[in-house]
From TrEMBL:
Entry cofactors: [4Fe-4S] cluster; [2Fe-2S] cluster
Cross-referenced PANTHER family: HYDROGENASE SUBUNIT, PHOTOSYSTEM I IRON-SULFUR CENTER-RELATED
2Fe-2S ferredoxin-type domain: residues covered: 2-80
Cross-referenced InterPro entries: 2Fe-2S_ferredoxin-like_sf (IPR036010), 2Fe-2S_ferredoxin-type (IPR001041), 4Fe4S_Fe-S-bd (IPR017896), 4Fe4S_Fe_S_CS (IPR017900), NAD-red_Hydgase_HoxS_gsu (IPR016214), NADH_UbQ_OxRdtase_ferredoxin (IPR054351), NADH_UbQ_OxRdtase_Gsu_4Fe4S-bd (IPR019574), PSI_iron-sulfur_center (IPR050157)
GO cellular component: membrane
Subcellular location: Membrane
Residue ranges constituting the 4Fe-4S ferredoxin-type domain according to the UniProt record: 139-170, 182-212
Molecular-function GO term, any one: 4 iron, 4 sulfur cluster binding
Domain 4Fe-4S His(Cys)3-ligated-type: 80-119
Gene3D superfamilies: 3.10.20.740, 3.30.70.20
Similarity annotation: Belongs to the complex I 75 kDa subunit family.
Alphabetized UniProt keyword annotations: 2Fe-2S, 4Fe-4S, Iron, Iron-sulfur, Membrane, Metal-binding, NAD, Translocase
Protein name in the entry: Ferredoxin
Length: 238
């Protein structure tokens, strides 16, 4: 595989042709916020938190879905990027009902942690307060779309790792939500293997285990899962 040379934060680095910018940035030990991206799953480019500046281009690009290119000059931190990232987190917080005090993932939520890291201490937008139907029909898990950020990790892990393709996304705008089957009660799905991977990859409390305490959910969130990513076994850790 050929090698390309690019500049990340004023440092000349090399990367594999075809590699995503995000993975090249991570290879340099640089931490940038992400929510939808997860190693072992295809990239989705939905949350836009991983945006970086490409010098010479007016547009910000989502680094997880942008391949490296010869001669690229990238900045991963700037006032403009921080402002955009904060705005994205605020929009996510205002779009659904992220009431941490009553959420089982309080303390183990990736959205909460990204918000804290970015210094989001208030939301400038009106809360939309949706009232989407919860699905507690599953034997083990509950789906609460009111806490979902539509990162589609659960949909992708169900399809690409478990091979069940039980979950999907339906609707638009504020009504958009993850569904089981063709919008049937999750508990009646015959394709669901009850593996729980969807719950473990959820970055918020949108999918949670029935009866689990906050501590158990945190432990589960930190659970090690072995997956086959096509070439080698990898460990996922949250
Ligand atoms: Fe790149 Fe979400 S991590 S768009």
């Amino acid at each position: 595989m050929s090698v390309v040379t690019l500049t990340i934060n004023d440092k000349l680095v090399s990367a594999q042709a075809g590699q995503s910018l995000l993975s090249a940035i991570k290879d340099q030990g640089i931490d940038i916020p992400t929510l939808c991206c997860l190693e072992g799953l295809t990239d989705w480019g939905g949350c836009r938190l991983c945006m970086v500046e490409v010098v010479g281009s007016p547009r910000l690009v989502a680094s997880c879905v942008t391949p490296v290119a010869e001669g690229m000059v990238i900045q991963t931190e700037s006032q403009r990027l921080t402002a955009y990232r904060k705005m994205i987190v605020e929009l996510l917080l205002s779009e659904r009902n992220h009431i941490c005090a009553s959420c089982v993932m309080n303390g183990g939520c990736e959205l909460q942690s990204v918000a804290a890291k970015l210094g989001v201490d208030h939301v400038r937008y009106d809360y939309l307060c949706p009232d989407l139907p919860m699905d507690a029909s599953h034997e083990r898990n509950v789906m609460d779309p009111n806490r979902c950020i539509l990162c589609t990790r659960c949909v992708r892990v169900c399809d690409q790792v478990e091979g069940a393709h039980t979950l999907d996304v339906m609707g638009r705008g504020i009504q958009q939500r993850v569904i089981a089957g063709l919008n049937q009660a999750w508990g009646t799905s015959r394709s669901c293997t009850k593996c729980g991977k969807c719950v473990q990859v959820c970055p918020t409390g949108a999918l949670f285990k029935k009866g689990a305490t906050a501590a158990e959910m945190e432990k589960q969130h930190d659970f090690l899962i072995w997956i086959l990513d096509g070439r080698e076994k990898k460990i996922w850790r949250w």
